[in-house]
């Protein structure tokens, strides 16, 4: 038997087959990250008016490359690699045959899909940005590639579910390890969220791009996209939360604050991150105000599990800091391991998430959305959420995960370089996103090439912000290169040795309500919420659709 | 409600469950600060909306 019984977690390591699979996902993620970082830096320079692209390349092409590779490919591959490693670690240090089979099948399909989509972007046949909104039309190969990425990610999810089922069979009547529980929650969210976008791609975009259908229902395609697009944000966030709830406490020498609270926060995030997509469509016609209001209310409920997470993190830091001798209201803060990159990088991510969360509430509020909608404020917002909170956490995880998977050690020099990398990324992101937020409030649009709008005074007022954005982008590129170099070192050159996979536990046995692990209940509640929030509006969009649109190629 | 011990620990070795006695004043203050940041940001942009409306 290769599945852990209770109390054995600390002794287990991640074995070679599981490590190879996780590493394969993590490295594809970082190859995509490197290309995306280059595209992002070029984009910043062009938008800042500092350079011009050669004639064979256009701004929207590199914008698409940056968005698709960073937001869709880097994140998804890294998340799957991280979850597989943690699931293996907490269930005996290994993965059984079918979990490995699902994992590799998913990886192969996702790599093929990524290559298909990537080649189309390079050939300038898919400059439709990462949201691929119709009526902009890409080559069918791009859509088929993205569909393969999604289907591949489902296969990988079946591997995690298979491991979970096996653990439950062998540990009847017990609650699963926290990491495993959170991985399953994350994957339920991902599979439910990707069904509508798969429907959009398979039944709307692919037939339309092949010319089989002359027009497309724009409203429906955008609704299906945002049905997926908002939980996509939580698919990025939940693995970062797993690192915050389960790994960071161990790194700082502390404990999980509350097992039940952690699980409840994940259930709330699962329930309230999906039936909320209309808050991305507040300025669109075709959806009545009442339905938008329902989605806004459900969106704002996400504040509850978010603040539960903030509370848990501060509580973990305070209890650990006080045990190390911290006194006074905030004296415990000084006792945290500030020179350990495994803590420092995710902590910086948490810090960015405070204004990120505040910005999210602003975006989701109807009147306030009117101020920021389609401005570069929104770009600034998702750069401090996914680009900082999530990315910095993933970097912090990578600094210990890669050595764990390669059987090497995070040396003091690599740790110091990681600290420098974190500072560069944080400063670059702060400068760039602060300029984006401010410029957005002054009306600067997102998703536009460099232009002075025929020297209009309002547009000329944005130019300085754009140059600041380019400077921040330059720092981010330096940090990205540094990160790749550190990860290459940790993969191939660092000294061989043991690196701990940090999994924290609660300080003392805590009762956990059994209902938190009854998935039929939570998936049932989720389906009811989705039907209530989306059922009627989608039916209306199909029954009373506006005239469809033919495809457009604007580049 | 039916409850279960945490599976990540060897329950036999674990001490009996007792209420947390930790000092969490700093946590309370920090969460209040986060809440204030959210409120100030929200009302700031709402003010901008009213100003432009």
UniProtKB/TrEMBL annotation, chain A:
Single GO MF descriptor: heme binding
One Pfam family cited in the UniProt record for this chain: COX1
A biological process term (GO) from this entry: aerobic respiration
Gene Ontology CC: membrane
Cell compartment(s), UniProt: Membrane
Membrane topology listed for this record: Multi-pass membrane protein
Domain Cytochrome oxidase subunit I profile: residue ranges: 20-492
Spans through the membrane: 21-42, 62-87, 99-122, 142-162, 178-203, 223-248, 260-278, 293-317, 343-362, 382-402, 423-441, 468-490, 519-539
Keywords: Electron transport, Heme, Iron, Membrane, Metal-binding, Respiratory chain, Transmembrane, Transmembrane helix, Transport
PROSITE patterns: COX1, COX1_CUB
InterPro entries attached to this UniProt entry: Ba3-like_Oxidase_I, Cyt_c_oxase-like_su1_dom, Cyt_c_oxase-like_su1_sf, Cyt_C_Oxase_1, Cyt_c_Oxase_su1_BS
Predominant cellular place of this UniProt entry's protein: membrane
Family: Belongs to the heme-copper respiratory oxidase family.
Protein's recorded name: B(O/a)3-type cytochrome-c oxidase subunit 1
Species per Swiss-Prot/TrEMBL record: Brevibacillus invocatus
UniProtKB/TrEMBL annotation, chain B:
Compositional bias of kind Basic and acidic residues: 9-20
UniProt superkingdom: Bacteria
Pfam families: CoxIIa
Keyword terms of this UniProt record: Membrane, Transmembrane, Transmembrane helix
Region: Disordered, residue numbers: 1-20
Transmembrane segments: 28-50
Entry annotated with the keyword Lyase: no
Name under which the protein is recorded: Cytochrome c oxidase subunit 2A
Native source organism of the sequence: Brevibacillus invocatus
Lineage: Bacteria, Bacillati, Bacillota, Bacilli, Bacillales
């Amino acid at each position: 038997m290769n599945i852990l019984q209770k109390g054995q977690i600390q002794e287990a390591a991640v074995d070679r087959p599981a490590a190879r699979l996780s590493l394969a996902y993590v490295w594809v993620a970082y190859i995509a990250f490197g290309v995306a970082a280059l595209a992002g830096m070029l984009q910043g320079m062009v938008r800042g008016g500092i350079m011009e692209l050669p004639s064979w390349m256009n701004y929207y092409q590199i914008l698409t490359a940056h968005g698709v590779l960073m937001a869709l490919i880097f994140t998804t591959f890294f998340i799957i690699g991280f979850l597989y490693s943690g699931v293996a670690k907490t269930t005996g240090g290994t993965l059984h045959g079918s979990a490995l089979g699902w994992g590799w099948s998913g990886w192969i399909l996702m790599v093929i899909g990524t290559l298909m989509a990537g080649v189309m972007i390079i050939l300038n046949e898919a400059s439709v940005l990462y949201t691929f909104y119709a009526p902009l039309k890409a080559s069918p190969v791009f859509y088929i590639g993205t569909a393969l990425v999604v289907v591949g990610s489902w296969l990988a999810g079946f591997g995690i579910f298979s491991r979970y089922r096996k653990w439950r069979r062998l540990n009847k009547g017990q609650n699963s390890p926290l990491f495993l529980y959170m991985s399953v929650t994350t994957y339920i969210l991902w599979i439910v969220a990707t069904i509508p976008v798969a429907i959009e791609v398979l039944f709307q975009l692919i037939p339309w791009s092949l010319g089989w259908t002359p027009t497309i229902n724009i409203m429906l395609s955008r609704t299906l996209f945002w049905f997926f697009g908002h939980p996509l944000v939580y698919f990025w966030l939940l693995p970062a939360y797993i690192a915050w709830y389960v790994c960071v406490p161990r790194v700082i020498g502390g404990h999980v604050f509350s097992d039940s609270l952690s699980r409840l926060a994940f259930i709330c995030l699962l329930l309230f991150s999906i039936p909320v997509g209309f808050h991305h469509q507040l300025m669109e016609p075709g959806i009545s105000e009442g339905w938008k209001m329902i989605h806004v209310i459900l969106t704002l409920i996400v504040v509850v599990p978010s603040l539960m997470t903030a509370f848990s993190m501060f509580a973990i830091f305070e209890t650990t800091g006080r045990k190390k001798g911290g006194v006074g209201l905030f004296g415990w803060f000084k006792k945290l391991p500030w020179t350990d990159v495994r803590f420092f990088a995710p902590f910086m991510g948490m810090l960015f998430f405070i204004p990120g969360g505040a910005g999210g509430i602003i975006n989701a509020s109807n009147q306030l959305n009117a101020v920021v909608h389609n401005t570069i404020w929104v770009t600034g917002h998702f750069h401090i959420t996914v680009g900082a909170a999530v990315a910095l956490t993933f970097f912090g995880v990578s600094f210990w995960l890669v050595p764990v998977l390669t059987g090497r050690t995070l040396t003091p020099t690599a740790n110091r370089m990681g600290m420098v990398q974190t500072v560069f990324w944080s400063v670059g992101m702060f400068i760039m996103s602060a300029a984006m937020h401010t410029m957005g409030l002054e009306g600067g649009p997102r998703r536009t090439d460099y232009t002075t709008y025929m020297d209009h005074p309002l547009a000329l007022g944005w130019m300085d912000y754009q140059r600041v954005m380019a400077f921040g982008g330059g720092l981010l590129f330096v940090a990205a290169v540094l990160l790749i170099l550190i990860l290459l070192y940790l993969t191939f050159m660092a000294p061989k040795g043991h690196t701990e996979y940090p999994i924290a536990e609660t300080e003392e046995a805590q009762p956990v309500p059994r209902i938190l692990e009854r998935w039929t209940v939570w998936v049932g509640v989720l389906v009811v919420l989705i039907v209530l929030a989306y059922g009627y509006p989608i039916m209306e969009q199909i029954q009373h659709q506006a005239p469809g649109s033919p495809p457009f190629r604007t580049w | 409600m039916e409850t279960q011990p945490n599976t990540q620990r060897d329950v036999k070795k674990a001490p009996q469950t007792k209420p947390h006695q930790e000092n969490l004043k700093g946590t309370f203050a920090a969460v209040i600060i986060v809440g204030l940041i959210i409120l100030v940001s929200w009302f700031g942009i709402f003010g901008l909306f009213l100003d432009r409306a």
